[in-house]
Write a structure and sequence with these properties.
Blueprint (H helix, E strand, L loop, with lengths): L4 H10 L7 H5 L4 H10 L6 H11 L5 E4 L6 H13 L8 E4 L3 H14 L8 E4 L5 H9 L4 E4 L1 H9 L10 E5 L1 H6 L3 H9 L6 E6 L4 H10 L4 E4 L10 E7 L5 H10 L6 E5 L2 H13 L4 E4 L5 H12 L5 E5 H4 L9 E4 L6 H8 L9 E7 L7 H8 L4 E2 L5 H18 L4 H7 L3 H5 L3 H21 L15 E6 L9 H12 L6 E6 L4 E6 H11 L2 E3 L2 E2 L2 E3 L21 E2 L4 E2 L5 E5 L2 E5 L2
Parallel strand pairs: 1-6, 1-7, 2-4, 2-5, 3-4, 5-6, 8-13, 8-14, 9-11, 9-12, 10-11, 12-13
Antiparallel strand pairs: 15-17, 15-20, 16-17, 18-19, 18-23, 21-22, 23-24
C-alpha cells in the first residue's frame, strides 16, 4: 500500500472496501490502468498521487512536483503517462530521465505493470554498464516510453541511435539527485533535442537552485504541486544520532544490528573502499551482508540487489551514488556510517526506509567533529535529531534470548519430531524446564556472550542515564594515568558503594562522566570533599557533558603536580587516593 499511515487511514475511513478503487476512478484514470493497479494491490491514492494525477491527465501543462521518496511518486507520474501513451503510434512519446541504473530498472518494471492491460505499450530502459548494442536494438524494435540515465541517453543521441523529436512528455525524476551527481550538462543536452511544445514533469524531493534553473529554462509556466510534508524529511522516520570515535563505529554498528531481532537495513559509507571494508568485516563476523558500489558490473550489482530484495541479505552496505534509486520494501534501519556532506543527501539516504507508509529509523554515527553539523542538518532537512543510546551488551543478549523464547512459544511441534522424542520422554521428564531452556540458549548464544564479555566499553557521548540513575562529573581522566577499571575501583572504595552502583563510565583526557544509581550520588559527592587521587584533589558533581568541562583542567592540586617518568612509563611517586582527616591523609589501597 502506498502513502503515509495517516493519509491511508484517512482514505480508508472515507471509502468502504468495495469503493476504494473508485478513488482512482475519480482521478480520471482509464479502466485499463485501474485494472492494472488493482492487480498490483493499490487501494487508495497517496497525497502526491491525488494532487498530481488529475493535473497531469488534464493535458498541455508543465508541472513541478515536490515529493519525498517513498510516497508513491512513480505512480504519480507513471499512471498518467501510461494513460496518455497507450494509443500512440509507433514512436517515442514519453521520456523518463532518472539518476541511476537501479532507479531506471525500478521505474521500467513499474511502468510495465501499470501498462499491463494497455495494449502493446513498449517500455525500454537504457543505462550505463549494459550492452549498448542490445539497447539500440530494443529502441529500433519500437518504443513508446524510454526510461534512461542521462549519460547513456547522451551517448545514444551522439550516435544518432535515438530520435526524440516526437516526444510529448519528458519526466525528470529525482531531478535534485541528477544535478547532485553532476548531470547538469547532460540534462541540458538532452532537453535541447526535445520538441519545444512538449510537456515537462519535474519531480524532486528538494528544490535547490540548480533545479529551479532547469525549471525556468525548459518549462512553461509550470504548475507547482507538493505532496504531504514535501521538502522535509519523512515524518515516519525516527532520526537519531550517536557520537562515537571513528575506531568504535564498527562495534556500534554490530550492537545496533544485534539489538534488533528483525533488522533489515542499509549502511551508508563515504567511499567504495569503506563499503567494501565494512561489508567484509560483517561477513567475517557471520552477518548476511554485501556491498554495492561503483566497482561492480551491472550483472554483479543486480545480483546483490536481488539477494537483498529476497531477504537473503540482512544488510546492504552502499555508497551514496550506488544506492540512489534503491526502492526496497520494509527496510527497518538506515545507518549513516559516515555523515554526508550535504543535508539533501541525508534526506535521500534516510528515504530508503519508511517507504509506502511504513515507519523506520535513521541512525547517524557522528564523530565529535560532526556535532557542529547537527543544527544545519536539522534545519535543512526539516527534522529533529534525537540522541541514540547505544545498547549495552546485557540488554542485547537479553533481547535476543527473549526473542528466541517468543519464537519457541509460537512453534508448532512437528509430528515426526514428537514421534522421535517419545523414547526420550522418561529421560527428559527428569530435567528441570528452566535448566533445559538455559542449556539450549547457552548453545545458541555462546558466541555472542563470549564476544561481548571480552569487548571493551564504548565511549557513547549521547548516552542518557536510566530513569533511576544520574550522571556525575569527575575531574579525573586518562591524563591522570588512571584506567576505567581503576576509576571504578577508586570510587567504590572511596564512597563505600556497591560495584553495581556504577553503570557506565565515559573517560576523556582530563575528566570523566560516570553514570551511577541515584542512591549513590550523595555518597560519592560527600566522600569526594577533601579526597585525593595521587596529588590531585578530587571533584565530583552532577553535570551534563555539554556543560563547560574545562574546570577539570584548573586547580585541584595540592601544590605542584608531580612529574611523570616518561622513560619508565610510570609515575616517579606512588599512585593512590588520599583523603584528609585529623591532620592526616590516608591512602586508599587500590
Amino acid at each position: 500500500m502506498k502513502g503515509s499511515p495517516q493519509k491511508v487511514a484517512e482514505h480508508i475511513s472515507m471509502f468502504k472496501p468495495e469503493q476504494l478503487m473508485e478513488a482512482f476512478h475519480k482521478l480520471g484514470l482509464p479502466a485499463e490502468v485501474i485494472s492494472a493497479i488493482d492487480k498490483m494491490g493499490f487501494t487508495a491514492p497517496t497525497s502526491i498521487q491525488e494532487k498530481a494525477i488529475p493535473t497531469l491527465l488534464a493535458g498541455e501543462t508543465d508541472v513541478v512536483a515536490l515529493a519525498q521518496t517513498g510516497t508513491g511518486k512513480t505512480a504519480a507520474f507513471g499512471l498518467p503517462l501510461v494513460s496518455r501513451m497507450q494509443h500512440l503510434p509507433n514512436h517515442i512519446g514519453g521520456l523518463i530521465l532518472c539518476p541511476t541504473r537501479e532507479l531506471c530498472l525500478q521505474i521500467t518494471r513499474d511502468i510495465q505493470q501499470f501498462s499491463a492491460f494497455s495494449g502493446k505499450l513498449n517500455v525500454v530502459s537504457v543505462y550505463g554498464g549494459a550492452n549498448i548494442v542490445q539497447q539500440i536494438k530494443d529502441i529500433k524494435r519500437g518504443a513508446h516510453i524510454v526510461v534512461a540515465t542521462p549519460g547513456r541517453m547522451v551517448d545514444l543521441i551522439n550516435r544518432g541511435a535515438i530520435r526524440l523529436d516526437e516526444v510529448e512528455v519528458v519526466v525528470l525524476d529525482e531531478a535534485d539527485e541528477m544535478l547532485n551527481m553532476g548531470f547538469k550538462d547532460e540534462l541540458d543536452a538532452i532537453l535541447e533535442t526535445t520538441p519545444a511544445d512538449k510537456n515537462t514533469w519535474l519531480f524532486s524531493a528538494t528544490m535547490p537552485a540548480e533545479v529551479s534553473r532547469i525549471a525556468k529554462r525548459y518549462m512553461k509556466s509550470p504548475i507547482e504541486i507538493a505532496g504531504a510534508n514535501a521538502g522535509t524529511s519523512n515524518a515516519n522516520i525516527e532520526h537519531t544520532y550517536a557520537v562515537v570515535r571513528n575506531d568504535e563505529k564498527f562495534r556500534v554498528l554490530r550492537r545496533i544490528i544485534d539489538a534488533t531481532p528483525d533488522f533489515f537495513g542499509i549502511v551508508f559509507t563515504r567511499t567504495r573502499r569503506d563499503a567494501k571494508e565494512v561489508a567484509e568485516k560483517l561477513i567475517k563476523d557471520g552477518y548476511r551482508a554485501d556491498a554495492i558500489h561503483g566497482d561492480l558490473s551491472q550483472a554483479q550489482r543486480e545480483m546483490v540487489m536481488q539477494r537483498y530484495r529476497n531477504r537473503n541479505l540482512q544488510l546492504l552496505i552502499a555508497t551514496d551514488v550506488a544506492a540512489r534509486g534503491i526502492d526496497v520494501s520494509d527496510v527497518t534501519h538506515v545507518i549513516h556510517y559516515h555523515l554526508p556532506d550535504e543535508p539533501e543527501n541525508y534526506t535521500h539516504r534516510s528515504g530508503r526506509t519508511a517507504r509506502a507508509g511504513k515507519s523506520g529509523i535513521s541512525i547517524a554515527l557522528l564523530t565529535t567533529r560532526d556535532k557542529s553539523k547537527i543544527k544545519m542538518f536539522e534545519k535543512s532537512a526539516g527534522m529533529q535529531w534525537l540522541p541514540y543510546s547505544i545498547p549495552e551488551p546485557g540488554d542485547i543478549i537479553a533481547a535476543k534470548m527473549q526473542d528466541k523464547i517468543s519464537q519457541l512459544r509460537e512453534i508448532e511441534v512437528h509430528p515426526e519430531i514428537e514421534k522421535l522424542l517419545k523414547p526420550m520422554r522418561d529421560e527428559l521428564s527428569t530435567w528441570d524446564a528452566f535448566d533445559l531452556i538455559s542449556r539450549m540458549l547457552s548453545t545458541e548464544f555462546r558466541g555472542m556472550v563470549s564476544y561481548y564479555k571480552n569487548e571493551s566499553s564504548i565511549t557513547n557521548e549521547t548516552r542518557k542515564p536510566a530513569g533511576n540513575a544520574s550522571k556525575l562529573f569527575v575531574n579525573l581522566g586518562t591524563y591522570d594515568r588512571i584506567s576505567e577499571q581503576e576509576l571504578r575501583t577508586f570510587l567504590i572504595e572511596m564512597a563505600h558503594i556497591n560495584p553495581d552502583d556504577i553503570a557506565f563510565v565515559l573517560m576523556r583526557k582530563s575528566y570523566s562522566f560516570v553514570e551511577v544509581k541515584k542512591a549513590a550520588v550523595s555518597k560519592l559527592v560527600k566522600s569526594s570533599v577533601g579526597a585525593y587521587y595521587g596529588d590531585r584533589s578530587v571533584i565530583i558533581e552532577e553535570r551534563e557533558e555539554n556543560e563547560n568541562s574545562q574546570r577539570s583542567d584548573r586547580g585541584g592540586f595540592d601544590g605542584k603536580r608531580k612529574k611523570f617518568d616518561n622513560k619508565k612509563g610510570r609515575d616517579k611517586f606512588p599512585r593512590g587516593a588520599k583523603s584528609s582527616g585529623a591532620g592526616k591523609r590516608k591512602r586508599v589501597v587500590r
